[in-house]
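User: what does the whole thing look like in 3D?
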Amino acid sequence: MSSTTVKTLVHQANQIADFFRLQPEAEAITNTADHIRRFWDPRMRAQMAEHIGHGGAGLNAIARPAAERACKAAAPAKEIKKLA
Amino acid sequence: MSLESGINANDIDRGTPERQSEKLVTLEIDGRPVTVPAGTSIMRAASLSGIDVPKLCATDSLEPFGSCRLCLVEIAGRNGTPASCTTPAENGMRVSTQTERLSKLRRGVMELYISDHPLDCLTCAANGDCELQDMAGAVGLRDVRYGYAGENHLDAVKDESNPYFTFDPAKCIVCSRCVRACEEVQGTFALTIDGRGFASHVSAGMDEDFLDSECVSCGACVQACPTATLTEKSVIEWGTPQRSVITTCAYCGVGCTFEAELQGNRVVRMTPYKDGKANHGHSCVKGRFAWGYATHKERIINPMIRKSIKDPWREVTWDDALNYVASEFKRIQAKYGRGAIGGITSSRCTDEETYVVQKMIRAAFHNNNVDTCARVCHSPTGYGLKTTFGTSAGTQDFDSVAEADLIMVIGANPTDAHPVFASRMKRRIREGAKLIVIDPRQIDLIRTPHVAAAHHLQLLPGTNVAVVNALAHVIVTEGLVNKKFVEERCDAKEFEAWAKFVSQPENSPEHVEKISGVPAEELRATARLYATARNSAIYYGLGVTEHSQGSTMVIGMANLAMATGNLGRNGVGVNPLRGQNNVQGSCDMGSFPHEFSGYRHVTDDATRALFESAWGVGLDPEPGLRIPNMFDAAVDGTFKGLYVQGEDIVQSDPNTQHVAAGLEAMECIVVHDLFLNETAAYAHVFLPGATFLEKDGTFINAERRIGRVRQAIPPMSGMAEWEAICKLSALLGYPMHYNHPSEIMDEIARLTPTFAGVSYAKLDALGSVQWPCNDKAPEGTPIMHIGTFVRGKGRFVLTEYIPTDERTGPRFPLLLTTGRILSQYNVGAQTRRTPNVVWHNEDVLEIHPHDAENRGIREGDRIALVSRAGETTMRAHITERVQPGVVYTTFHHPESGANVVTTEYSDWATSCPEYKVTAVEVRLTNHESTWQEHLDNLHRIQRIETVAAE
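Assistant: Here's the predicted 3D structure for the full assembly of 1034 residues, as structure tokens:
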């Protein structure tokens, strides 16, 4: 994982959080987390989870808890179910 | 309607335009009763009853003029012989179109015309396709009593300056059709009749060559000309066409319907189709004339592979190429995981091609790493309009503009990028609609003949959201909200929160003036005009979307339209002007990594189950990578293989050096395209694509109109793109079986509720339909959100202005914004390979005289354009079109490298790049940039080994 990618992800998470920041805090965190979960590829969420594990530098007050919620549990890509 | 036919088999010219009226009048023409709407001309009424009145100056695309005196008729009880084109039909009229008196008069008129016309019919390019010739026959002209030795215009000099058509004044009958077409249809007013009496002649500009005049080469004059005066050079060279195929243009998002006219498999000309519902018989220089790239010598028609991007290309068979791709993609997935490959669909390709590409990626790659070039243009439109209204598309059809009283153009340059729609917009403005332009730059629309914007808000790049909030502030605080609409149609609680937000002092025009540079009074006047007009319509482009707050701005415009009740009827709406021909379609078809066709999320279990059942394969429940994330992942080493269809990401995507770094880190890049483009320099496999002339399928334009693309000539590579995708998918272990693109559309209709009623049979019957097209709307939906929004209640969302992180400072004191020009299209891959380069053969940097003077820059100087992302060079053009502190360029030529300097900042919601705001410095230079030297090297190694195909 390059530092450039992490910097980009932190910037994007903060941008998302900034859009929702006029909402009540809990709602803003939920909406930010939901946006990340719905639009970020699992490896991006895993990278963010790793970054949070290292302290999460650079994340703003809404982005940090939101990213934790959306990314911390990020597992490696799920197996696709086999159809009969 | 015949879809493949002899020339113009159903193209009946009724002489004067259709009139709409609830009042009907009944008259008798040559003994036949006919009933028509009041206001209809006698000529048109006659035509509708099957009677052709001879005519020359009349054509049904233009208002009647009454100059040729050929269409004279007699009316019982009235004196004289009035012109049938200018005389309205009235109840009880008894009209005669053929009498001895009329015959004599018409023959006399024709004698005069022919006495000053070259008698070279057999060698004339219009032989067999000439209205003058037809009329000579129709009136029974057998002799010219005056002879041919009198004073005449036969030695008049031909103007061959335009690359696509000639003007031969010797053949001109001065009927004014060309002049009127330029005025009424195109709205450019480049032509006039100069001189008087015998000296009268058609003049381009101030008696200039066509090329040097204001003429924009739309072809309306050529289309209108009844003789060989204005003739396509292709027709002069090759002769008249033998057959035609009705199809859809592959340039901008207007989606004009054309007739491809051919001799065998050679296209002779493209003519705008009168019954095309997007263009109504009009065209622009690109669609009408710039199709020669299809047979350009640089076209690649054989598959090629190479192990390393430093190797020369080697031509191989289709089987070898596809087998190589399959083996490489399988190897990469085995080594790096199934998420290590992905693909990019194209907004230039058909819906059917796009659909099978995303299906291959989801079903054969087993991931959702599919994205489309709409990512870098209109992805915020999808997000913003879905959030507020419930669907990811514009609200109106193009015809709606005819009822707009106030047209607000935001961040769009229609006369250059959507010229055919711009002509209709200008027509409405000439009829009295007011115009507001919100743009950092002086676009042509602001002041053009008979059009002048009431307000031009020349804001600083990056301050759109501040401006839209200021407009909302005025509307709310001055009591201009349409309370009835808001109460009935929108969520009340969300409206209250929004109204409170926009009323805050930081959103006042006085405060926003300090941010945007737009005077507060201008903001207030604009808001009042928008809110109080009977019908106000917003039209917008990439100047809205390509910002870090692109989605916020789309939402802001939607808020404005809801607050003023400008939705759900003709003449209003929020209307994205899509850049490429099939931006709407590529998005509709499930090209985004988080959505299936019809904008349904991949995490939705029911939707996924629907596709799993239909496709017989398990599908990834997680969103995939977006295009910029693909490059990041490639640099990180987790993304190694990419299939790219019809998009030149190296030239079109921001921060070129980062894109190139990502591509260089990959192990197998497949480019499926027409030419060895900039991206192909990094590719290992080249699959030859097909032009729109070689395709069967559909495009969807900016008004959600699904139009048929019909194959005019067979694919030059021997294989349709959808077929190649299906073969590749099969080699990857997931066969897809279709016999024809219509079967792909049938599958789309089965799986996508908004397309449930779409079929090729319906498209053939109706010409085109606008989605949603289903049981509720079997013939489509021209206007959306009538009565209720798709999502139920309209949703107001707070749109705080947050300045971009891209800031000017001492090192980079200027703001760069980018755009397009009329004659070139996108990265120029097509238009650069046509004579359109005569108008624009290089990108230049527009710079204000003050900024130029401060830097010692003179017109035409080579300058270095530097940002924190990179540096390039180009020539300077000093102009007051840009304001001080702002510079502007286009990105049509790879050598100019506009995107070498744009940054990776992007829209918060969709990652659409912030092309419109880059902090730069400009200085004089006398050498190319390092990147440009690198580009030269890349072009040098793009060589093809001269060995026979295996």
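In plain terms: Chain A touches chain B through 28 residues (CB under 8 Å). The helical segments of chain A are 3-20, 25-39, 42-53, 63-71.
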